[in-house]
Fold:
Amino acid sequence: MYFGADYYPEHWPREFWEGHAKLMKEAHFNVVRIGEFAWSKMEPEEGRFDFAWLDEAIEALAREGIQIVLGTPTASPPKWLADLHPDIYMKDEFGLTRGFGGRRHYCQNSPIYREYSKKIVSAMASRYKDHPHVIAWQIDNEFGWNDTARCYCDNCLQEFKRWLQNKYTSIDELNKEWGTIFWSQTYRSWDELILPAHSAADLNVGAAKRYSHNPGLLLDFYRFCSDSVVFYQKLQIDVLRNSGCSQPITHNYMEHFNQLDYYNLGKDLDFISWDNYVVYEWGNKAYETTAMAHDVIRGIKEKNFWVMEQQSGPCGWNHLGDTPKPGQLRLWTYQAIAHGAEGIVYFRWRACPVGAEQYWYGILDHDGIPRRRYREIQQIGRELSELSDIINDSKTISDAAIIQSYDNWWSHEFQPHNPGFDYHRLLHQYYSALMHHHIQADIVSIDTDLSKYKLVLMPAFNLMTDEIQTKVENYVKAGGNLIITFRSGTRNWNNSITLKTLPGYFKELTGVEIEEFDSLNFGRTVKSSGIFGEGTSCVWCDILRPLQAETLAKYSGEFYRGEASVTVNSYGNGKVYYIGCDLDEKAITSLLKYITVESQIKPLLSQPMDGLEVVRKMKDGKIYLFLLNHTDATIEISLEGKYLDMLSCETISTSVTLNAYGIAVLQSL
Ligand code: GAL
Structure:
């Protein structure tokens, strides 16, 4: 298990380094991540590299037993580079340059920037490829952060044309797939192609944006931008590998970020890491949201991961978020570990007196005095040295899976069907409802092996292919249970609406036809009742005509009163549930209770308890339960069976008590 902090030796006088390293050691640290923004210090002017300071910092840390994850510094190109080649800057959709003054001021499609990136990475690679204390590399920092994945510069236009040529081979094929006959948009040659920048018909309506561009063009542009980042990352990975670096390579992802296809980005990485902030200037997250983010990250490679930046203090840029309460840093750390983290790196070691993140507190305050937060992290370090054997290579075992698709997310994003519809929120709603019942769900791409799961949820899986249809049909035929919701199966993969009767690609599986639908606007709600009691929809209602399916709920209002809203269809040895409307939290929770019981999924604990999270892991044939109390009250949890408390080493049989923000790791006996 790796445990440590994000450290910026370049921010501190040389004479501080040893003291920092000693305090880290006393907190049981064995790793730091460094270097990811230090380009101007590594290459102060073009071609003059200076790594002496970095060598010295690494040595100072290594003397205390601390290993290094080394970041390539390409997220902050130095001023000399940008001044020499202003062509590296991104352009926004209005054609304005996104210039110097912050970070990520580069376009991944700039050929010049790619060359400079290769040079700095290659210089680092030659110096550190065999370094005994550099144990891993991080490429760049948070690709896409602050809307930097999508650029509208001329380099992007040229690359986009190539990307499209590669995908469609002929311009006629592109015209056909996009349907450019609409509004006379037919392109006669590749040269005529455009980026979906600001156009005469685009409008900002209130906070929302109304897109008028061709939906095929928009979706392909989003895919292209994501691919451009994947390509840029690969370019750096290739430099490292071709220079002889054999250390594992990662990139630090962001929670619930959707401008990149995180599955594609993950293919070239050895392990995934991500940055986890829970309470900060921009909000206080529900524990389900963080749990889901961990599961999304584990699902990228279906492997354990690292948290490369784990919140360790109050934080924000212009305002400060809430101060983490005693116990919360520990709770969030165990939550990460429960969901699959094998490396915990706290952001940041010590609050920085200068720069845009003066308010981003770390383990230490600006004055460097170890206080409550340091002591809490030191306690975690002590505990983890005992627990690391059961954490490393442990597996999180889930009976259910939620399918997440970036292509679908993008398509829903610019045409959400209804102002109240949000693809991610829908997935979150289903995930939270399962969590409420203490049922663990993996979040995975459609490429996963579905046969591992008793229940698969494909909420609003709208873009479809024949291959996906066959895969899902085979899963159900073999006995799987599947949930499909409204706005599924209505489009092909290039974003045209299908001519099939809805729910299109899912018609046979679900055994229903959608007779009509009703998009609920301006606060209108519709009730339905059935197997879940009574529920309210405020976004969408599909009016269902069951063909072979059985009705589980019916609408009780509107002109479709008495028509089916939720159905179940037997297909082969399995069952397909079609949920034709959005439902309030209570109704979804109750509906999922019914479906999970029918699917023979046993909850991890029989009694739901608000604020209590339970995660099951397995290592060497032994089962462990992580119990996490996200409330500020002491709670008592009834247990079935006998357990060994891995921290107190006591045997427990009937119940366990958790203090406010307390945790327990129990081994099933
Ligand atoms: C992350 C980023 C860090 C730091 C931190 C606090 O998004 O990777 O470099 O900026 O947030 O803002």
The chain has a mean pLDDT of 97. The pocket of beta-D-galactopyranose is lined by residues 141-142, 275, 309, 347, 357, 360 (CB under 6 Å). The radius of gyration is 26 Å. Residues 128 and 600 are 52 Å apart (CA to CA).
